Amino acid sequence: MKIRKRLFAAHIPAIVLAVLFIACQESKAPVEKSTQEVKVPELTEEIKTPDSTEQKVVLEGDDVVLARVAGEPITRYDLAQTIRSMLGEQSAVKLDEAGRQKVLESLVASRAIARVRAASLSLEDRAVLDKKVRSYQEQLLVKQYLARHASPQPVTREMVSDYYQAHPERFGGRTIRSYEILASKQKLKTEARDSLIAVFKAAAGKEDWKQWAQQLQAEGYPIEFRQGRVEEKLLHPPLQQLMKPLKKTETSKLSFIEGRAYLVRIVDERQIAPRPLHEVSAEIRRALVPIQLKKAVKQASRQVLETTEVMYEEH
């Protein structure tokens, strides 16, 4: 089937047409036919696909001319497609005759602007425009192909359940871990460092770190005691890494971070259950639909590439 560039001019971005549509609404003056012909490069060169044939195909309404811009026709098909792109399918059928006339006037204006712009294109501008037209055509062809050949598998109950089990944190499920820390208040010199290392060897056998820390402070050791939750955002990243592998009641090895001594232990660990599956199943289905579509697109792409010769050039 032949695809003509004039269709690209007829379907410029909706935002431009919307502006022209408003302008046409505000103007009540009759539109006079111009007697001066603007010479512009033809916008009707054919872009042939590899399977293009010479058989003429007339689209519905494309044989009914509603207006001509410098001799170039705007058809009922052009108008219908423009209305759909601007308003959507549902609103398009509700548009009355006055509204259709305003859209036609905006389409005439956009076609005229496109022709005037085409007249001033440099060779480089035209080359860039041709690339964009080709790219847009390719996007439409890909979209049509995928609509026919990339049928996503329906989302099953098993898929929903598996997703729920794999991502409980997305539905409120989480683990709350509480920690305690014994740390030196500042960087330690060699003698103080060795002394504190010797004292901290007994930490794993102490049940109440807070009381023990107070005792050590009374004896002159420069240490502090802290407690909190592992998920705290203000917790120093190296400390988070130190806590990560620890199980409940387990004490870390003595570590030095920026010259300060640290001992960490996990004192509590509680599981918060996620919301019930029946409350989030619809949400999960919505999340899985694009995933299934992506899989279908990959499969369709793989099938096409298996029968297509592709060569990447080295530069």
Can you characterise this structure?
By secondary structure, the chain is of the alpha+beta class. The protein folds into three domains: 130 residues, no CATH class; 60 residues, no CATH class; 99 residues, Chitinase A, domain 3. The protein contains eleven helices and eight strands. A hairpin with a 2-residue loop joins strand 3 and strand 4. Helix 7 crosses helix 11. The two termini are 36 Å apart.
What brief labels describe this structure?
3 domains, single chain, 11 helices, 4-stranded antiparallel β-sheet, 315 residues, alpha+beta, Chitinase A, domain 3
Inertia-based shape: elongated
Radius of gyration from the alpha-carbon trace, in angstroms: 35 Å
- The portion of residues assigned to helices is 40-55%
Give the neighbour order of strands across the main sheet. 6-5-8-7
In short:
The chain has 315 residues and is α+β, with helices and mostly antiparallel strands. It has helices spanning 5-10, 14-26, 76-87, 89-92, 97-119, 123-149, 157-166, 190-200, 209-218, 237-243, 277-306, and strands spanning 3-4, 46-47, 65-69, 72-75, 174-184, 223-229, 255-257, 260-272.
